[in-house]
TrEMBL record:
PANTHER family: MITOCHONDRIAL RNA PSEUDOURIDINE SYNTHASE, RNA PSEUDOURIDYLATE SYNTHASE DOMAIN-CONTAINING PROTEIN 1. Signal peptide: none annotated. Pfam families: PseudoU_synth_2. It comes from Prosthecobacter dejongeii. Belongs to the pseudouridine synthase RluA family. GO terms for biological process: enzyme-directed rRNA pseudouridine synthesis. It comes from the Bacteria. Residues 21-176 form the Pseudouridine synthase RsuA/RluA-like domain. This is RluA family pseudouridine synthase. One of its GO terms (molecular function) is catalytic activity, acting on RNA.
Amino acid sequence: MSSAESPAITTCSILHRDRFIVIVNKPAGVLSHPNTARSTEHAAFEGRYDLEEKCFDSPAGKVWLIHRLDQDTSGVLLAALDEKTAAKCRALFDEDAIQKQYLTLVRGNPGKEGTWLDHLATTREKGRVRTGVIKGRLPNAKLDFQTLAHHAGEKVSLLNIDLITGKTHQIRVQASSRQHHVLGDDVYGHFDLNRKLKKDLGLKRLFLHAHRLTLKHPASGQKLSVEAPLAEDLAKVLDRLGLDWKPT
């Protein structure tokens, strides 16, 4: 179903919709939800947003946001169309029972595959959100990665990330702490390399895309896997690098 068929719910491209859930492809630059109840900033779904209930009051009815993506991250975003389904979906996230896979282009070569474990802590002050790695504490953040392609000349690698936990800015912070900064990251990134690749490859934003979400459907119990195609601007960067790749 295309977004044109349901303009009252979202202006994002709809990847899957049924009676219980709707899954969209959120573009970079669009908020998952407004930052304040009175905000007029463009968000993934239509209508006023209730920060406490995590729910949009769209013209076509309420839409419960199940998780979020950073504003500069594109890709798969899940919402529920009734409160009971929302509770089931959120329980799946709390149990880490929903598989979230990302594509990201990073600095250097982290190896063929591996697992990153860290303790992350997030601070919020005057609208500024930052996450850092705390050494010497038990891990609360985990991801697995596989390297899909490496460019020896530019010294960059395309990774498939299996995000096991869901901490704020997790992929970006875990990558940067290992000197494998996500390219285009204007907060935790390698700024000299960002400037170089913007000039050489036209990379103008964060190279981080939520490309697949897999879950047990909250109503049917059947496995559901939904993919969001890589955004055109990011695909062009890979083409310019001449990388032969495909997600796993």
